[in-house]
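## retry 2 of 3
previous attempt timed out at serialization; input unchanged, resubmitting
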Amino acid sequence: MAQLRRLTLAVVLPFLAAAAPAAAFDVRETPEGVTVVTATFQAKFARNGAALAVLRGGETVLEGWAASDPGGAFARGATTQTIGALQKVGGEGDVVVLDYATSVKDSVARLELRPFADALRVTVRLLVSEADMTPGFAWKLEPSGWWYGGGFQGFRDPQVWPLNEASMVRPTFLVSGLSQATPFWYTTKGVGLWVRTPLDFRYSVNEVVEGKKDGLLRVAMPLASALEYDLIVAKDVREAVRRFTREVGYPRRVPPAEYFRLPLYTTWVEHKADVTQAKVLEFAKAIRANDLPAGVLEIDDKWEVHYGDMDFDTAKFPDPRAMNDDLHRMGFRSTLWVHPFVNPDTKTFAEHRDDGLLLRDANGTTGMIRWWNGPAAVWDFTNPRAGELFRRRLDGLMQGFGFDGFKFDGGDVHFVVRDAKPMRPMTAAEYPDVYNEVATAHYGWNETRVGIYSQPLGIVQRLIDKNSVWGRENGLAALVPEALTTSLRGFSFLMPDMVGGNQYDGDTIEPELLVRWAQASALMPLLQFSVGPWHHGPLAVTLCREASQLHLAFAAYTYRLAEASTRTGEPILAPLFYHSPDDPETFRIMDQFMLGPDVVVAPVVTKGAVARDLYLPKGRWVDYRTKKGVEGGRWLKGYAAPLDVLPLFVREGARVP
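## retry succeeded, writing output
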């Protein structure tokens, strides 16, 4: 049939306060297949294998397989099966249904399609009596331009930007991304891909098959009876990102203005778990003695006697109230490391193992996981009583000892009992956001490391612990692309982890690395130190001080951007292509970023480099240091950047410090 019907949509989407714009669409069946036509795009489904091509203005912007691997292949247990011919076209209301035959007897691959003005929602169901068929999809990278998004790419793996140049195979997306990932990808041709089903999944980009990269982004979700995802079709990459952040939600609040101004100093690298009250005060005094700005002093692990009781170890911290009084007199705020784990040697575990406040397993008993400090239970934050008790303990630490806020650690997907039976419905993939909503978001001076859809909470997202190396393997060269990925996921208030990294696994912070890291972090929304620069000589102290002063100088501008993000959803930190989506020169730049629309930062992230190539978008720019004007829309080759210089440019006429 040439035209099946014409329908009008008016659907309220999750997370949105208002209804999405109505969209008229046609469904046309031809010998080649079925096409869904809207005013913005055409989605052409082939008669075999559920292959799909999406066209905008006559150009193919997405091509692949909507329900499976290439050729219609999908997993059924340990075997590979295939999706075959289109059997039926139907639907009701605003949903179009396509039923395909499969190689499994008496089974159907069903696609439920819901068109919007600028998107197509696809639900994949592999219908069979046995629940062992795996829905998924596979998209060719090349037709969509350059790809970005997802999340953290691995603790010792290279952070690659754009994804077309990556090659990765992950058994899980959220767990492998250490719960700092959102299943949303976007491309320079304006395509957005958003997996909405709240389960983890297998994930690959450019998997090497028979010695060659396959040129695909693939997802398979073994635990799902239905896989739901959105295909966004926007005019450019910026609009695709805006479409996503608008629906997920803008931040509803902004952390305190002082949080964007004051540098943070965490005790972690200085002392690891050997932190004591005396060492905290010694650290603070050294900061001030070296004329570094007083800021937020964060006490990290291990201050508790037992993990989960939130009781100070009085042998290490004889008088936390006096300690905080001293810190406040020196001009510091103070925050404390906390977590959702309850180890079995605690009073808390004994008191609550049977009352449902700790997450239960399928047996109905308190479930156990293993975190980096041993076996533990975790709080069931779907139980309001658990959240109330947890916050009451945090409030007690603030009121009793004078802390200003907390660093919230843990809450990862993989630290949830596999067969969890929470009080209220929740998958493991949703635990990080429940944790943030019930705990993190209640405190202005907060910091969290996890989050998939916590963007509306307006919390501070700290990047994953960094390695003390120069390269893209979660070191300095990974800092900018990871920060940009996090920012475009909608987490505007980001903290780029500690300057110099964590000195894990024998890594060593050297003076040059420390200085270049401080410069790279200085114009990010928050700035965090840990190792004292004085350990690396007077030059390191001077240059880290200059980085801190630069951060202070731009704090008011950064805070204006933060306040605006609650109204517009615009990121504080963005790649150059976000503000120049029609400039192909910006598409592969992974070592520069923009602070708002008017500041370009080009840090040096290569060991020994004293110059670098950098690109300025179109317009007139001013070198912040020399005050010389520069015409943009071009590359500046070999731009001088000795150790004391951070290349930094402000748009001419812009209102920044």
